[in-house]
């Protein structure tokens, strides 16, 4: 939704709410306000490939549960948290950037992060894999990491050593204009600039919660990470980088 439309929507809702309070709202107006409110909720994105397309690296059952249950749960609870907070969100990343460690923001942090992280995660994997970074992305990676091999070691290490549940990320630093690797706990994301040690804009991320790999890999997180790196959708990662200034 564009900024102007968002403002317009907000004012429609405020006027509707005010009229309701004053007892002068018609049924039609309150229905209109309800429809507007519903249009601002988030929904589960479809996978960009079939649920078994990432086999043998990520199995069908894991994908079904991970996308259909875990991600769907984050979306449902995010919408509930937004409703409780009476918040309308134009851009989820912008909301995450404002979050603090205040008790009242835990649900938005966990479920907003969960929806944001998984929405990126599905897109940065591709059936068959076999891609390599190219063009401007390759240039940025070489300039930031002393070569692709070093990047691979750093990224895999960040993912392997993240204690407990969390994510490893390849991020763009908005002011230094370079790429870096970091990891976050739980559903935190580097865009949560008031909450993470190294803020940035993620262009690639790997989920290292056990729910992402345990059915197929059990305790072998390292093997899961190595296989994840074989199915990275580098074209999408390049696209993610190209949209940043
Ligand atoms: Mn997950």
Q: What are its keywords?
A:
245 residues; mainly alpha; 3-stranded antiparallel β-sheet; 3 strands
Model description:
With 245 residues, this protein is mainly alpha-helical. Helices cover 53% and strands 9% of the residues. The longest helix has 25 residues, at 60-84. The chain starts with a helix and ends with a helix. The relative contact order is 0.13. The structure holds manganese (III) ion. The site of manganese (III) ion (MN3) has 7 residues, from helix 3.
Question: TL;DR of this structure?
Answer:
The longest helix is centred in the first third of the chain and has 25 residues.
Content-based structural category: mainly alpha
How many β-strands, per DSSP?
3
Question: Uncertain segments of ≥5 residues (pLDDT<50)?
Answer: 1-39
Strand coverage percent? 5-15%
What is the element string, with H for helices and E for strands?
HHHHHHHEEEHHH
Radius of gyration: 20 Å
Shape: globular
**Cα end-to-end separation:** 21 Å
**Biggest sheet architecture:** 3 strands, antiparallel
Discrete helix count: 10
Give the rounded overall mean pLDDT: 87
Helix content: 40-55%
Q: What bound compounds does this protein have? A: manganese (III) ion
Strand order in the sheet with the most strands = 2-1-3
Topology:
Blueprint: H1 3-22, H2 27-39, H3 60-84, H4 92-98, H5 106-123, H6 135-145, H7 148-161, E1 166-172, E2 179-185, E3 201-207, H8 214-217, H9 221-230, H10 234-242
Antiparallel strand pairs: 1-2, 1-3
The structure holds manganese (III) ion.
């Amino acid at each position: 939704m564009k900024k102007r439309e968002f403002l317009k929507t907000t004012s429609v809702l405020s006027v509707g709410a005010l009229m309701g309070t004053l007892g002068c709202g018609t049924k039609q107006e309150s229905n209109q306000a309800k429809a507007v409110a519903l249009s601002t909720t988030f929904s589960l994105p479809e996978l960009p490939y079939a649920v078994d397309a990432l086999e043998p690296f990520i199995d069908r059952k894991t994908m079904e549960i991970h996308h259909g249950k875990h991600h769907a749960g984050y979306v449902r609870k995010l919408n509930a948290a937004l409703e409780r907070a009476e918040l309308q969100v134009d851009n989820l990343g912008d909301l995450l950037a404002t979050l603090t460690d205040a008790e009242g923001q835990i649900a938005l942090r966990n479920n907003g992060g969960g929806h944001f992280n998984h929405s990126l995660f599905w897109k940065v994997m591709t059936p068959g894999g076999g891609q390599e970074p190219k063009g401007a992305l390759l240039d940025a990676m070489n300039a930031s990491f002393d070569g692709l091999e070093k990047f691979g070691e750093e990224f895999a290490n960040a993912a392997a050593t993240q204690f407990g549940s969390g994510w490893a990320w390849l991020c763009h630093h908005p002011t230094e204009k370079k790429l870096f690797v970091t990891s976050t706990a739980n559903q935190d994301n580097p865009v949560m600039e008031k909450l993470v040690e190294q803020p940035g804009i993620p262009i690639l991320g790997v989920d290292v919660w056990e729910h992402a790999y345990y059915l197929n890999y059990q305790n072998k997180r390292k093997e899961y990470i190595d296989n994840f790196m074989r199915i990275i959708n580098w074209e999408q990662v390049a696209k993610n980088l190209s949209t940043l200034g």
